């Protein structure tokens, strides 16, 4: 069965302090976080990779990863595609304010890949390391007999996703007794503390499930996403045209409350890590060194494919 991995790589990371954080080398031979995600996805059985980027970073992106990954994928029967997120890609009749500089969020980013995806697909962030377990679980779910509107997400444990160097934004999940998502609360500035986590001084359960934007979706979701984007421009974008964002977890949460979809939470105990702040990079480099030392990856990452 065909399954695609859609990688959101359009952001430059304002908190990163300059540069394109998705392209920062973290492995022993210059590998970036995305390399490890692609490796894990291919190993799990995904056979199409779709990069969502911006046109203005295309040359750098292809030089650092795109051309190399295309060569790797060609050897193992995996196809590669590109989609471009643009501030100007809005529903017919919508007006983009001259003062607006940022695209419209992760929901719009995924929608940019609409013409590149015609099979069940997973969505991830380019600058997050998710671990092997989550890719296997999502792939197995997507290959099952799923009805339209039956989706999944990787459920990470909050304490396994925090940064030592500042606050982070996480989608804190509410889950029913059968392991299905009932709501996602986008929570900003979650700070790691000695015994857990807090937001504005208020403790947060460190064992909560959180969404790290790792979703398993059906191809029909693109039509649903397009409808939501049109509604977004009649509501949030109309009220706050300069800053409103069409965020994937927020929209999925809305669909859940309306009873239009179901989302199975697939628990993963793997420790997430990523480069949110420049100060995070040394810890990420060390984490990959330990994974290689433990035999999880080879030093020459794609040498085993």
Write the layout of secondary structure elements.
Blueprint: E1 4-8, H1 33-44, E2 48-53, H2 58-75, E3 79-84, H3 106-111, E4 121-125, E5 128-129, H4 132-143, E6 150-157, E7 168-175, E8 181-193, E9 196-199, E10 202-204, E11 209-217, H5 221-234, H6 236-239, H7 248-257, E12 262-267, E13 273-274, H8 281-293
Parallel strand pairs: 1-2, 1-4, 2-3, 6-12
Antiparallel strand pairs: 4-11, 5-13, 6-11, 7-8, 7-11, 8-9, 9-10
Helix pairs in contact: 1-4
- Measured by DSSP, the beta-strand proportion falls in 25-35%
Care to count the β-strands? 13
Treating each run of at least 4 consecutive H or I residues as one helix, how many helices?
A: 8
Task: Tell me the CATH architecture.
Answer: Alpha-Beta Complex
Give the termini separation. Answer: 20 Å
Q: What is the average per-residue confidence, as pLDDT, rounded to a whole number?
A: 91
**CATH C-level label:** Alpha Beta
Q: Write the CATH homologous superfamily.
A: Spore Coat Polysaccharide Biosynthesis Protein SpsA, Chain A
**Alpha-carbon Rg, integer:** 18 Å
Assembly state: single chain
Q: And the CATH topology? A: Spore Coat Polysaccharide Biosynthesis Protein SpsA, Chain A
SSE sequence, one letter per element: EHEHEHEEHEEEEEEHHHEEH
| Basic shape | globular
Number of domains: 1
Q: Please bin the fraction of helical residues.
A: 25-40%
